Amino acid sequence: MQSAEEKNQLQIALLGPPLVRYAGQSQTIDRYRTRAVLYYLACQQVPVTREKLCGIFWPNVAEKTARKNLREILSHLRSQFSETDFITARYDQLSLNSNSVNVDVQTFQNLIDRVHFNLFASPTGKLPESLYRELREGLG
After folding, report:
1. What's the domain range around 13?
2. Number of other residues whose CB lies within 10 A of the CB of residue 1
3. Quick one: 112 and 134 in the same domain?
4. Domain with 87 in it: what CATH number?
5. N or C: which end of the chain has fewer CB within 10 A?
């Protein structure tokens, strides 16, 4: 049985064919641009301004229209995953809530960052066995 935390967890797999799972169930996001915005946010390690998102996804559209389009996409995503607060909006910046969303790209990047740190910090230049195992498991 899933815990309440797992039940409301959004999982996004982008290393390989994209897959979105919510509460353990595979999800379909019909609209191309909606998927693109979600995947873009999933790959960002820092919040992104609405202005930047509008510039990326609607470069040749008036700002007012681009912002309206972005609001509609965010509304659609929030309604599809309504039981979790996975989008964080702070001032004019957007990001995915790391407490509600698990993204394989971020997990992999964090693992690579730990590998780099340990390689440079280690006098022998070798990884600790536990980190080596974690890296091998992560690479599947």
Report:
1. 4-103
2. 4
3. yes
4. 1.10.10.10
5. N
Please enumerate in sequence order all residues whose Cβ is within 8 A of that of 60, keeping only pairs 6 or more positions apart, or say none.
none
At residue 47, φ and ψ (nearest 5 deg) are -60, 150
Query: What does the pLDDT average to over 88-104?
Result: 93
The two structure tokens encoding residue 135: 């890296």
Amino acid at residue number 108: F
CA–CA distances in Å: residue 75 to residues 38, 120, 129: 12, 44, 45
Of the candidates 108, 88, 99, 90, which has an alpha carbon nearest to the alpha carbon of residue 41?
Answer: 88
d(CA 42, CA 19): 12
pTM of the full structure: 0.81
The pairing of strands 101-103 and 87-90 is unpaired
Q: What is the mean pLDDT of residues 1-12?
A: 65
- pLDDT tens sequence across 29-52: 999 999 999 999 999 999 999 999
Please give the Cα distance from 131 to 113 (Å, whole number): 11
